[in-house]
Amino acid sequence: MANNSLEKFVEGVRQIWGPLTSELVTGCRQHLEELVKASSTEEWLAALHWEAPAYHELYRDPAHKFVLLAHTEQAGLYRPPHDHGRGWVIYAIQQGEIEMGTYARIEAPDASVKLVKRNSTLVRPGQVQVYLPGDIHDTRCISGPALLFRFTERDLKKEDTEEHRVTRYVERDGGWTLGAP
Predict the structure, then answer these.
(1) What gap in Å lies between CA 27 and CA 35, rounded to an integer?
(2) What's the pTM value of the predicted model, to 2 decimals?
(3) Which site from 58, 80, 84, 110 is most exposed, i.e. has the minimal number of CB atoms within 10 Å?
(4) 67 domain-assigned
């Protein structure tokens, strides 16, 4: 039996976990929407507000491998366009505002790559944003400190540093293109 909203989130996701489907994404999204409504008097959330960690692992599921992280970001922090390799991610905002842009990857006839920005969404407290495998996005903290939760279906740090499956883009000649390999 869950004692707080974080434990309730974990139990809820574990009950619905399975292969990537629309239903799984919807279920995880709903559980995150409930999590960001948690009272700041809950011990785990009060500690996050007090400590304001840039990176804190809240939960790692030993059987299913999904991970829930908390990030505190200051206004102006920008994370350039990137994807999450084979993984998918859901961001949920508990405090502050984060602007999230989405991009399409375009290959020119000469095999050069550039990004075209699709849109930008201002994500506010209580809102979530989903990115599936291959989706390219950036983030900018508009109002901080922002507390966001990042739910991933796998360890993205391993996906990036060990397996080199995350693609990062750099600004060059006024546009976004592939970073150094």
Answers:
(1) 12
(2) 0.89
(3) 110
(4) yes
